[in-house]
């Protein structure tokens, strides 16, 4: 039993107290929703499978309502594209109408060409999404390949969370944040329990329609049971977990929890929590908030850093409560808890000489050179006297800092999570009155970032610092 396994119950205990305003008042609602949705799919799939439909490896998916089309008849012409609503790294997304039944859908047209249907079927986005059937995970309805162009037909959502944040002056009420997080944690618990982790959680990938929020963009989703090493770059830098920044090749679903903590903080403050301008700066910003790790708090982190000849800056760190002055202590504890996992299951330190791993692979010499020059050279080396981290939360209770390496067994660790969650259940329904309203700052848009530890300059011109679309 891991923290991830317990997540639905823990979150249910916590959220059900306060989420009575919306439809998502209880776990029961979610379970009922799942049943309803599953039944609907069973009915639909009969219609969906036709002569032209390529079957989805029977028994391989509980979700058989996906329609993989092949053959000569144009399937994409059944949709009238209305307006482009998103332009990502891999595809552009359109609001469209199914001309046959008037249904509004989202059509994601992939930028890369696909020369066989098998190639499309092996895409992570397809492989993982087709197995997901949850009210808070965006539905993939059909997959169409025509003229070597691949289209995903998805349920349509009104906007993403970043769009909602960028025009706001005042932070969202905590009750609203709680309601969204409640739903997303459920979606995460669902996918983690089914053996997937998302790896690219960010506000742009959380889609909202009215009170409902859904996880989208499974382009980087991974099977938990897949065998490390995971060598490609993952996740947008601002939401990237430290073990990924430090190039652990065996991270797991906890990276999604990290991202959720950062997103939740951003929702509560309208400022990104760790807006690093490079990977080095990202680690620096993380340390600024939660303090530098030491042998006690995160030995694995130190090993990872050593393996890549990186020296952590020596920073005591602010309290999260300093950074998020008007957030409730329970919200702060939950965000802290997002950095928690039981003692590492599969943590693996990179070999001394990093293997060549595609674009990410560089020689050890390059690593050393980068870390002895530029931005990183300004960081103080890790001293033999470990930084003393403040381990008390705003409420005076222990907070799990860098607790991915707590020297406890899983049960003890879980008890800590439970105690945090219990405290969270006391969180008030309405957000606390904010004494001051933070001035609006331009919202920044996040994008994919490849490793800039190794291949790029850390010195980003000031003009580029105000963009989330960091092309690395
Ligand atoms: N089902 C949908 N309904 C409405 N809008 C959507 C939908 N799916 C995606 N979008 C919009 O399109 C944007 C890009 O979509 P998506 O993240 O899937 O593309 P991508 O190429 O994989 O992007 P990224 O650069 O994040 O990898 C999203 O941020 C969202 O605003």
From TrEMBL:
Chemical reaction(s) catalysed: L-seryl-[protein] + ATP = O-phospho-L-seryl-[protein] + ADP + H(+); [DNA-directed RNA polymerase] + ATP = phospho-[DNA-directed RNA polymerase] + ADP + H(+); L-threonyl-[protein] + ATP = O-phospho-L-threonyl-[protein] + ADP + H(+)
Annotated organism of origin: Panicum miliaceum (Proso millet)
Domain Protein kinase, residue spans: 79-357
Gene3D superfamilies linked: Phosphorylase Kinase, domain 1, Transferase(Phosphotransferase) domain 1
Residues annotated to bind ATP: 109
Keywords, comma-separated and alphabetical: ATP-binding, Kinase, Nucleotide-binding, Phosphoprotein, Serine/threonine-protein kinase, Transferase
InterPro entries (UniProt xref): Kinase-like_dom_sf, MAPK, Prot_kinase_dom, Protein_kinase_ATP_BS, Ser/Thr_kinase_AS
Name listed for the protein in its UniProt record: Cyclin-dependent kinase F-4
Family, per entry: Belongs to the protein kinase superfamily. CMGC Ser/Thr protein kinase family. CDC2/CDKX subfamily.
């Amino acid at each position: 039993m891991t923290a991830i396994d317990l997540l639905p119950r823990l979150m249910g205990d916590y959220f059900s107290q306060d989420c009575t305003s919306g439809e998502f008042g209880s776990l029961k609602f979610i379970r009922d929703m799942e049943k309803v949705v599953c039944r609907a799919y069973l009915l639909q799939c009969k219609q969906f499978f036709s002569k032209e439909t390529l079957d989805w490896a029977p028994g391989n998916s509980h979700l058989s309502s996906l329609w993989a089309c092949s053959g000569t008849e144009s399937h994409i012409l059944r949709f009238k594209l209305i307006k482009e609503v998103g332009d990502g790294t891999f595809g552009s997304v359109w609001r469209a109408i199914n001309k046959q039944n008037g249904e509004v859908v989202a059509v994601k047209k992939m930028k890369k060409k696909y020369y066989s249907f098998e190639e499309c079927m092996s895409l992570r986005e397809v492989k993982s999404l087709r197995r997901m059937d949850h009210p808070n995970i965006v539905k993939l309805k059909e997959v169409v390949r025509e003229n070597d162009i691949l289209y995903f037909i998805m349920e349509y959502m009104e906007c993403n969370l970043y769009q909602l944040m960028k025009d706001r002056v005042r932070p969202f009420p905590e009750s609203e944040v709680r309601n969204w997080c409640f739903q997303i944690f459920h979606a995460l618990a669902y996918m983690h329990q089914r053996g997937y982790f998302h790896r690219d959680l960010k506000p742009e990938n959380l889609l909202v329609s009215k009170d409902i929020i859904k996880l989208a963009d499974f382009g980087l989703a991974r099977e938990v049971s897949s065998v490390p090493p995971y060598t490609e770059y993952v996740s947008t830098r601002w939401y990237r977990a430290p073990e990924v920044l430090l190039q652990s090749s065996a991270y797991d679903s906890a990276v999604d929890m990290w991202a959720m903590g950062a997103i939740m903080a951003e929702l509560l403050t309208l400022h990104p929590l760790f807006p690093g301008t490079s990977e080095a700066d990202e680690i620096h910003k993380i340390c600024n908030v939660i303090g530098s790790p030491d042998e006690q708090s995160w030995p694995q982190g130190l090993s990872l850093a050593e393996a890549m000849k990186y020296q952590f800056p020596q920073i005591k760190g602010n309290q999260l409560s300093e950074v998020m002055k008007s957030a409730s202590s329970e919200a702060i504890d939950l965000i802290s808890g997002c950095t928690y996992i039981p003692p590492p299951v599969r943590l693996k330190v990179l070999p001394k000489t990093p293997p060549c791993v595609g674009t990410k692979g560089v020689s050890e010499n390059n690593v050393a050179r980068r870390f002895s020059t530029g931005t990183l050279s300004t960081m103080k080396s890790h001293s033999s006297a470990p930084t003393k981290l403040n381990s008390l939360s705003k409420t005076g209770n222990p907070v799990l800092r860098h607790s991915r390496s707590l020297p406890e067994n899983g049960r003890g660790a879980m008890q800590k999570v439970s105690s945090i969650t219990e405290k969270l259940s006391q969180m008030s329904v309405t957000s606390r009155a904010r004494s001051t309203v933070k001035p609006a700052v331009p919202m920044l848009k996040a994008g994919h970032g490849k490793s800039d530890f190794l291949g790029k300059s850390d010195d980003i011109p000031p003009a580029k610092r105000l963009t989330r679309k960091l092309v690395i």
